[in-house]
């Protein structure tokens, strides 16, 4: 069995305004969970040559709002390697945010990313 602990994958994505689901251009929490599924899939391909299956979340914490116009980064890191399972820690960070006070299309790179969502999950591979 190969130890994959520490293996990390990151995806970055712009969130279009068409994904705003609530007032204030808020995006639902499921958006970040979908990105966690995508980074977990790539992580399984890298570590095991298979897309794997997402088995469960042990913990999900919504820590800050995600808004349309944000650029977010989803990161997955293997923290435990079992025979067929991998425990993975996930983080969704906001790295850029729209700045409508400066103009309709204005946006800023954040000096410090905002941690929006964290989770721990389990994936299984054949």
Automatic annotation (TrEMBL):
Q: Name one Pfam family in it.
A: 4HBT
Span of domain HotDog ACOT-type: 5-126
| Entry-linked Gene3D superfamilies | Hotdog Thioesterase
Q: Which UniProt keywords apply?
A: Hydrolase
Is Hydrolase tagged as a keyword?
yes
Highest rank taxon of the organism: Bacteria
- Record bears the keyword Hydrolase: yes
The name on file for this protein is Hotdog domain-containing protein
Q: What is the source species?
A: Glycomyces tritici
